[in-house]
Each structure stands twice: as C-alpha cells, then as structure tokens.
C-alpha cells in the first residue's frame, strides 16, 4: 500500500520495454490494499518464448514423431499447433512467462531509490528480495481445478489423472504423484505376505527366527522387482511427457541470481553471462570454506555446552524436576535459531559463489 507512483511506473516501464511480449494490467486491490500486475501474453508471443526456452513439444508422425525443442521456423511440424488454447498446457504458459520475468536484466547504472543494480543483474528477483515485490505467483484456473477435484481428490479407488496433473502442475509434480501411487500400490505385496506370515508363525523362538529370514528374503526380492518396474514405468511417463531424452539441467531455468560479464559463448556462439572459474575458486577457498568450518565449530561447541549443562543439572539432586529439562529446551531453541541463521548464510554463500 505504501508503494509510490515512481516505483510502480519504473517497474511497469521496465517490464513493458524489457519484455515487449507481455501484456500487463495494473490493478489496486481494495481489500489487501496492494498493487498487482496481471501478466499474460498472446499466442504468437508464447510461441517465440517456447523457441527461446527450448520447450519440447510432440512432432507429427509424418515428420518423425517423438518430441523435440520447439522452433518457430518449423512450427508446422508440431502436433496441435493450430489450436491456440490446447497447444500449450497451463504449466507451459506459466513457465514461459516466468522465464521472461526472471531474466529481465538491468543495464549499467540503473537504480531505483536506494537499490543500485549491477549491469546484467536480474531485476525481478532483486525487487522481490528487497520487499518491493511481495509475491510472484500464477493464478489458478478454476475450471481445471474443479475437474481435478472430481477426478483426483474426490475419486475413490480410481487411477490418478496423471496426464491432467502434468498439464496443470508440470512434469515434476506429475512424476512425484506417479511414483507415490506406484509405491503405495507396490506396498500391498509385502503387507499381505507379512500378515499371512505373522498369522501362521508359532510363538516359539525358532519359528519366529525362520519367519524373519523368510520375510527378509521376500523383501530383498520385492525391492529389486519394485526398482526395476519403476524404472520402466518412469521411462514410460518421461517419454509420454517429453522429458526422456532431455538433460536434467535443461529442465531448470537459468539461475536469475547469477552475475557475470557478458560474452559470446565459444560453444553456442550465443550471448551469455560468464564468471571466471578462478574467482569462484578463490571465493570458495577464502570465504565459503572458513565460514562453513566456523559454523560447524560453533554448533559443536554449543551442543557440547548443552551436554555439560545437562550433566551439571542432573548432578544437583536438590533442583526441581522441571529444571532438569532446561538444557534440552535450550538445545532445541539453539537448533531452531541456528537453522534460520545458517539458512540465510547458505543463501548468501550460494549467491556470492
């Protein structure tokens, strides 16, 4: 609510000029009293974004089938290319727009109030880190959510709509629920076999020992078959969803916090940001390693102090019983506090390194 007009116009102009493919609407919410930018894009812009992102799409059978990275120059070879509403899934449209936003970079000397950007620094993540932008998130589509609610959440003893989950939430979420469903189904076998074995096992020690050995052998065989079957099932899903022959790193957008100097890549001949390896090694050796060691030593000393305090408390018989739990409470508070502090230290080291 306290955002001034200069900040709003500055951010709006940078998005419109830096990402001309986006359509931006500015609204002020009466109840939350905050400003919101509603972002979308035309179908033609999404096609160009898919080309830039290298999004993999199914190819028509007459052109070889399978999937390949999208190319605007050969858009006619892709299946369903004429269907503006169906060619991109909800998750794919969101990924393209998010990719544009996170790679909106600042020019040399740009600043907003007390925020001074480095050349090539991502603008949106920096504004989010400084609190200028509160949240960055996609809006739900109620029509699809209602359909998923009926076919997935409220369904009983029915197969999960994995293709619909993939279209809406993306491949990673769909693959997780595919594995979760497969694992849950596979657990039926050791549960049934274990129950039968327990029922027919006598109470004497010899029978129980034999049952344990039999159940252990069964679990070894079950685990092996489970792993091999999931490899086949996971490869099937990956092929169907177009990620089978996609390197893992290509599924991730470039880290927007990465900073470096612009150069022409000697491999792809495309413009990229480059950070010399010797600088990274120097920072890791002189900063990251000492900081990590200091954090480990601090945790060890604090934990050792709590143990010493515990022994001292237990040695004093006159203390009330409640005070005997004091060292454990102090240790729990220390662990919680260190977790928050070290999380910030880890993020800082990751961004700087």
Automatic annotation (TrEMBL):
Topology of the protein relative to the lipid bilayer: Multi-pass membrane protein
Subcellular location(s) of the protein: Membrane
One Pfam family hit: Anoctamin
TM spans (from-to): 176-198, 210-227, 281-304
Main location: membrane
First and last residue of the signal peptide: none
Domain of life from the UniProt record: Eukaryota
Domain Anoctamin transmembrane, chain residue ranges per copy: 165-352
Key words of the record: Membrane, Transmembrane, Transmembrane helix
Gene Ontology CC annotation, any one: plasma membrane
UniProt-recorded Gene Ontology molecular function terms: chloride channel activity
InterPro entries: Anoctamin (IPR007632), Anoctamin_TM (IPR049452)
Record-stated family: Belongs to the anoctamin family.
Protein name: Anoctamin
Native source organism of the sequence: Quiscalus mexicanus (Great-tailed grackle)
Gene this protein is translated from: Ano8
């Amino acid at each position: 609510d306290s955002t001034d007009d200069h900040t709003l116009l500055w951010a709006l102009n940078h998005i419109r000029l830096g990402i001309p493919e986006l359509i931006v609407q500015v609204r002020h919410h009466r109840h939350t009293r905050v400003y919101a930018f509603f972002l979308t894009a035309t179908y033609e812009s999404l096609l160009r974004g898919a080309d830039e992102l290298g999004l993999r799409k199914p190819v028509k059978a007459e052109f070889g089938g399978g999937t390949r990275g999208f190319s605007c120059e050969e858009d006619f070879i892709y299946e369903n290319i004429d269907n503006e509403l169906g060619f991109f899934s909800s998750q794919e449209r969101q990924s393209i727009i998010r990719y544009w936003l996170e790679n909106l970079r600042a020019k040399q000397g740009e600043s907003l109030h007390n925020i001074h950007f480095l050349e090539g620094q991502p603008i949106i993540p920096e504004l989010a880190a400084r609190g200028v932008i509160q949240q960055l998130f996609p809006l739900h589509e109620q029509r699809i959510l209602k359909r998923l609610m009926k076919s997935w959440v409220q369904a009983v003893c029915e197969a999960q709509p994995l293709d619909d989950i993939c279209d809406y939430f993306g491949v990673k979420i769909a693959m997780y629920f595919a594995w979760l469903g497969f694992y849950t189904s596979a657990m039926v076998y050791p549960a049934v076999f274990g129950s039968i074995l327990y029922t027919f096992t006598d109470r004497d020690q010899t029978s129980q020992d034999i049952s344990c050995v039999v159940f252990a052998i069964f679990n070894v065989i079950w685990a092996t078959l489970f792993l091999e079957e999931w490899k086949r099932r996971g490869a099937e899903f990956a092929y169907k969803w177009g990620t089978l022959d996609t390197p893992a790193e290509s599924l991730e957008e470039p880290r927007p916090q990465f900073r470096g100097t612009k150069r022409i890549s000697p491999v792809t001949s495309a413009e990229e940001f480059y950070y010399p390896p010797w600088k990274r090694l120097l920072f890791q050796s002189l900063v990251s390693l000492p900081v990590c060691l200091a954090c480990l030593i601090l945790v060890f000393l604090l934990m050792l102090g709590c143990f010493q305090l515990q022994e001292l408390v237990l040695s004093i018989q006159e203390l009330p019983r409640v005070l005997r739990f004091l060292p454990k409470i102090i240790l729990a508070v220390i662990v919680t506090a260190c977790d928050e502090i070290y999380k910030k230290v880890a993020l800082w080291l990751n961004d700087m390194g």
